[in-house]
Every structure is written in C-alpha cells, then in structure tokens.
Design a protein that fits this description.
The structure is a single chain. By secondary structure, the protein is an all-alpha fold. The chain has one domain (55-201). It contains 7 helices and no strands. The chain has helices at residues 26-40, 55-75, 77-88, 98-119, 123-149, 155-160, 169-208. α2 (55-75) runs antiparallel to α7, α3 (77-88) packs across α4 and α5 packs antiparallel against α7 (169-208). The protein is elongated and about 115 Å long. Residues 24-30, 32-39 and 41-48 have low confidence and may be disordered.
Length: 210
C-alpha cells in the first residue's frame, strides 16, 4: 500500500479472525440431556415414597374389598328375587320396582369401589371407601326409620314403590336393619384401617426426615 504523504510503499498487514467455537450438535445435546435426566431420575432401589404401601396394609385393603363385594352380593338378593318374579311373568309383580333398581345401583357402587381398593390400595382410597359405606349405612338407617314410623301413604314410600311390594313392612324393616349392620361394620373397620394407615405414613415420614 503506498503512503500519500511520503510516497513509500508499505506492506498490507491483515489479522485473521479467531475461529468461532464449534456448535454442539443436536445429538450431543440430546445425549447430555438424557444423561442428566437419568442422573436426576430416582433409581429402582430408591423407590417412590407414598406410592407403594406395606404388605400388611395392602392386605387390609384387599380384605375390605372382599367385604364390600360380600355386602353388595347380599344387598341385591331381594332385588334379584323380585326381578326374577317380574321376568317370569308373575301376576302380582308386573315390573321391577324403584327400590330394586336403587339396590342394584348401590351394589354396582360397592363393586366399583372394591375394584378401586384392589387397584390402588392407599390411605386416601380407604378413606373414600369409608365415606361411601358410611353414606350407604345412613341411607339404610333412614329407610329403616321410615318403614317403622310412617305408613304406606307416605310420598317417599310411594316413590320407592314399597307400598306395592310382595314383602310386608316388618320384612322390609328387618332387611334394612341387616344391611345397616353390615354396611356399618364395614365402614367401622375401613375407618380403623384408614387411621392406622395414616399413623404408619406419619411415622415413616418422621423417620425419613433429616
């Protein structure tokens, strides 16, 4: 390059730019992400706290599920008898009454929660089962009081079609008392199991804290 002031020619000096840092490939970032996630993920030996219950508690949940299945099977016996008479064409039982349909509905509810207990044996599941059986027990207690205290002309008795039933009021009251006892016993033991479950969880969490 020629200088305009002195007329001398000077060589042109150029400086090379430093090389840019190499970009990480998608595969490298994926590998690093998978390795970091695998490091953060709990290993099989660590387990998942609060999910897997001890063996004795799972056994109690299964026993409660069996008890609920038994209560559901016993509870639908009068409805099955009335349904058979209606299906056979009995002249005194032309159709299935409302109370029988509600009995089937309660039995299906008990079976659903029995399956729920087996699939997910947990403290919260046992508490929900306790609430369901307690509400069923309260419903049977209400029906028992109605059948003992009111006449066949009552609106609720007429709605349930207990006034046109093949069973008399004494048999209906006795059956409500039996179901009240069964559902009450299941609800009692389910509540005790839920309380014991909560105590076990609290003890385990207290010992696990640093």
């Amino acid at each position: 390059m020629k200088c305009p002031a002195c007329g001398k020619t000077t060589p042109l000096v150029t400086t090379a730019r430093p090389p840019l840092p190499a970009r990480k490939t998608a595969d490298a970032s994926t590998d690093s992400g998978s390795s970091s996630s695998s490091d953060d993920a709990p290993t099989e030996s660590q387990g998942l706290p609060g999910i897997a219950a001890p063996a004795d508690l799972r056994t109690s949940a299964i026993n409660l599920a069996i008890a609920m299945i038994g209560v559901a099977a016993i509870g639908i016996l009068p409805a099955v008898y009335i349904s058979y008479l209606a299906w056979a064409g009995d002249s005194q039982q032309a159709a299935i009454p409302t109370w029988a349909l509600l009995t089937y509905l309660v039995a299906i509810l008990h079976l659903a929660y029995a399956i729920y207990l087996v699939q997910l044996p947990d403290w919260s599941t046992v508490w929900v089962t306790t609430a369901i059986t307690l509400m069923t027990s309260a419903a049977y207690a209400t029906l028992l009081g109605l059948r003992l205290l009111v006449s066949d002309q009552h609106r609720l008795i007429h709605f349930l079609q207990l006034d046109i039933n093949r069973f008399h009021a004494g048999q209906e009251a006795g059956w409500c008392f039996i179901m009240l006892m069964l559902t009450g016993v299941v609800s009692y033991f389910a509540g005790r199991s839920a309380l014991h479950w909560g105590e076990v969880y609290q003890r385990d969490f207290a010992t696990a804290e640093p």
